[in-house]
Amino acid sequence: MSNTADDGRADGSPPSTAEFTPERVLSVFRDRTDQAKPLTATDVMDALGCSRKTAHNKLDVLVERGDLETRKVGARSRVWWIPFSQLVGSGAEPQQEREPPVEHSIADADLPGTGDVLDDRRAALRAAYDYLRENPDTDAGKLITEVFQEHPAGYKTADEWWDAIGPALEDLPQVDLAVDHGHVWHYVGG
């Protein structure tokens, strides 16, 4: 079979660089449990099966857009990472000061999804935590009513949302569920 413009790989040639969009490269960074860990161009090449030049070109685009940051780590080595501000939330909303263990717990929370969906679910968890912090003793119904509307995180119903966010919220530092489980949540932080 001959190599055609449509398939470009019928003869076993490497994939086209058009297959390696900046968003696909960015997904290599986002679809990991430890999004804060820097990656090398080789890590990206291995994950996507692209050339070094393609990896560097797409990484440069992501740095220019502000989606990644980079730094030289030797004579000929460089690493890239997701900026901290993107890991803890967008700069569009005023950030509440949270203890680093809370941010680490939110980043490590067992929430379903990847990429933007996971980011939205972490933002919803962060919003639920902030609401609880501002309203130290609240019931689950009030918490859901106040947070779900602005942060649905891809869930169609509040029940689906709470099934994911509730357990993750309970696992965060300084959050306690009443012993009688009467749906009263407590923020026990200072």
Outline of the structure:
It is built from eight helices and five strands.
Overview of the structural elements:
With 190 residues, the chain is mainly alpha-helical. The chain is 46% helix and 9% strand. The protein has helices at 22-30, 41-48, 52-65, 84-88, 100-108, 115-134, 140-148, 158-170, and strands at 69-72, 78-81, 137-139, 175-177, 184-187. A 3-stranded antiparallel beta sheet has the order 3-5-4. A two-stranded antiparallel ribbon has the order 1-2. α6 crosses α8 and α7 (140-148) crosses α8 (158-170). The chain is elongated, with a radius of gyration of 21 Å. 23% of the residues are buried.
Provide tags for this entry:
190 residues, WH-like_DNA-bd_sf, elongated, WH_DNA-bd_sf, mainly alpha, three-stranded antiparallel sheet, ArsR family transcriptional regulator, disordered N terminus, Arc Repressor Mutant, subunit A
